[in-house]
Structures are given as structure tokens and as C-alpha cells.
Specification:
Blueprint (H helix, E strand, L loop, with lengths): L6 H15 L8 H14 L5 H10 L5 H10 L10 H21 L4 E7 L5 H13 L7 E8 L2 H9 L1 E3 L8 H7 E4 L6 E4 L1 H4 L2 E5 L13 E6 L8 H14 E9 L13 E4 L2 E3 L1
Parallel strand pairs: 1-2, 1-7, 2-6, 7-8
Antiparallel strand pairs: 3-5, 4-5, 8-10, 9-10
The chain binds S-adenosylmethionine.
Amino acid sequence: MEIEISDAEFNLFQRLIYDASGIFLTPVKKELLKSRLIKRVREHSLHSFKEYYHYVTERDPSGEELISVLDCISTNLTEFFREIAHFEFLSDHLIPSLIESKKKKHDKKIRVWSAGCSTGEEPFTLAMVLSESIPSLFDWDVKILATDISTRVLRKSMLGIYPKERLKGIPPHLLNTYFERENSSSKENYQVKQILRNMISFRRLNLMDDIFPFKGKFDFVFCRNVMIYFDKKTQGELVSKYYNHLAPQGYLFIGHSESLAGTDNKFKYVQPTIYQK
Ligand SMILES: C[S@@+](CC[C@H](N)C(=O)[O-])C[C@H]1O[C@@H](n2cnc3c(N)ncnc32)[C@H](O)[C@@H]1O
């Protein structure tokens, strides 16, 4: 029997998802929500979305099922070298000036955060750009933290295996240097080499958490195409948390269809989608 979702059931999930992730699903997303969650309803042999809602909120104290809900509804679209201007800004301006100022302070640490990293294309692009732009890379202690709310995308990121057609944006010389053919499947897949994977720690982190568990500060944060799913209030709160977790003069990069306009923030505007503490 076909299971439908009523407006009241949609409202329950809309609230649950908003409270848990900051993602606000407008009513036009009702059918999308239904198509994404119906598998979970059936998997638990339930008969309605209302029963599934009670299962998630009352019968699963581990919170695992809520993570599955968020996995199903999050949009994970991404690609290597997405919004190339950001990576040009890094290699032409940010990294050279960061290296100069760190050298003066005898500080060898470079810390970067890819917040909402999806399947890993963004942090791996950052790792390639940092590796190519930092002279004497091995003299430096470079670490990229890559976080996402979805355990499904994090599992993919950690493997770092991509079909050939996903690698289109990568310049050929970087593809040769940092990827190798992966032979465990008949498909033409490539895996990111260990040297790049070693630079990145993948972790599950919900950007809605009140406190982020970081001791040190980041030199720059990429949070691109994530805040677009949040309302202005949530965006403003998140942007001030980024401000607090950045080193002085640290940078925040956001997606090209996003803006900090309308949020109460202390960042200095550098150029569209790039802000500095
Ligand atoms: C469209 S992808 C963006 C990927 C990459 N930053 C880029 O620009 O290509 C958005 C990602 O944000 C994640 N996300 C959404 N809400 C989140 C939250 N509350 N905490 C952490 N990650 C979240 C999603 O799971 C998804 O992987």
C-alpha cells in the first residue's frame, strides 16, 4: 500500500530536522521529504510517517535513526575545484602572505577547516592547493579538519575513491600527482593518494552544536553551500562561531550564492564570498 505524508506529519519532520540540523524545509519540499524517507519507514516495517516520527523521537534513544534522517535529507552536491576563484585567492594571496607572517613568528602550524565537507572533494582540493602553494611543505605542520553532519558522506570522504567522471575539474598534472587507479572494482575509479589523505581528519560535527570542541584557531575556514539551507538567525549564530574559532586576520569563505548580508557579524568584507577577521 502506498504510504502518503500528511501536512501534519510533514510539519513534525520539518520541526525535528530544523531543531537537529538548522536545515529548514519549506512546504514545497513535502514530496521530496516523502521520497527520501519512505525507505526508512519501510525498513522498520512501519505503516505511516507518524509512526516513523515516534520511532525516531521515542524508540531510538541512541539517536542513530535521527542521523539516518539527516543523511537522507541533506543535499551533498559538490565537486573538485568548485568555485575556482577561491582556490586562486588561496594560492595567489592568502597562502603566500600566511607563510610570510608565520615565518616571522616561528609558527609552523597551518590549520584549515572545511565545514560541511560532503564527500570530500572540497578538503581534497584544499589539500592539493596547499601542497602545491607552500614552499618546502614538509617543514610545515599542515592539518585540514573536514566535518559534516552526514555519516554517509563522511564514509565516502574517508575512502577518497571517485569515479573518473567526478575528477573532471582537476588539472591533469595534479591528477597524476595525487591520484592512483583503484583496482577493487571493474569501474574506472581513482583513489586519492595517502600523502594527501594524511593531511585531513574527517569528523562528524553538527554545525548547530552550541560549542565546537577545538582548542586551536583556524587560519581559514571554508563553509560553502551549507548556510544556504539555514535561516538568517542560524546563519548569524554560526558566522559568529566561525569568527571566534579563527586566528586574528583569519579568513572565512562562503558559497557564491551566499552572503553575510543581513547577519550581525564582525567580519571585514574582502571580496564577494571572502571575509576576514
Ligand atoms: C551542498 S554540500 C556542500 C559541500 C561543499 N562545501 C561544497 O561547497 O562543495 C552541503 C553539506 O553540508 C552538510 N550539512 C548540512 N547541515 C549541516 C549541519 N547542521 N552540520 C554540518 N553539516 C551540515 C550536508 O550534509 C552537506 O554535505
